[in-house]
Amino acid sequence: MIEKLEFYHGAALVRVIEDPRCEMIAKHACGYRVNDNRVLAIKYSTKAQSPWQFTFSSDDIQRFDSASAEFGGCAVALVCGGDGVCALSWQAITTLLAEAPGAIAIKRGFGGCYGVNGPAGGLKGKVAMNRWPGIVFDGEGEA
Q1: Long-range contacts: 13-22, Cβ < 8 Å, 24+?
Q2: pTM of the shown model
Q3: Which residues of the chain fall short of a pLDDT of 70?
Q4: In the prediction, which pLDDT does 19 show?
Q5: Distance from the CA of 93 to the CA of which of 19, 64, 65, 87 falls in 20 to 30 A?
Q6: Which CATH number fits domain 4-138: 2.40.10, 1.10.357, 3.40.1350, 1.10.405?
């Protein structure tokens, strides 16, 4: 039987692996290490439709902060059920969370981009679905 974590992580990882810029991928305490110079964290929601909610604990914050400092940034894949992957930088998530444990919500209308909100407000713009997996290879960016 395929575990939920395997199913949802696999949905995000297959696009990373198939990207021509991917040379290697390995397990890391925070998630996965890509090309020995980037860390990828994955969270998932099993909810079928928008909005999706993702909770970040103090342990998550400590691990992702540490990985981000070690590798100069951390890409976060938020797998929204069977809809797609909302790609954000760890920097954007800490801003949305006001650097404290909490949850962020992601909404997407039919054919649209992802709108992201947290306790400290929302992102200035929307997150395009095609941002994944480019954020892993292109760096932090604003979103």
Answers
A1: 13/42, 15/85, 15/132, 15/133, 16/40, 16/133, 16/136, 19/133, 19/134, 19/136, 19/137, 21/137, 22/137
A2: 0.91
A3: 139-143
A4: 95
A5: 19
A6: 3.40.1350
With a CB cutoff of 8 Å and minimum separation 6, the contacts of 134 are: 19, 87
* Residue with token string 């039987």: 1
* SS3 call for 134: helix
Report residue 28: phi and psi, to 5°.
Answer: -140, 155
Contacts of 49 (CB under 8 A, 6+ apart): 81, 83
Q: pLDDT tens digit string along 95-135?
A: 999 989 999 999 998 888 999 999 999 998 999 988 999 99
Instruction: Tell me: cis bond preceding 51? Omega within 30 of 0 counts.
Output: yes
Q: Give the domain ranges of the chain.
A: 4-138
Q: Answer for the pair 106, 114: CB distance below 8 angstroms, yes or no.
A: yes
27-49 residues labelled b (16+ CB within 10 A) or e (exposed)? ebebbbbbeeebbbbbbbbeeee
Question: How far apart are the C-alpha atoms of 133 and 138, rounded to whole Å?
Answer: 9
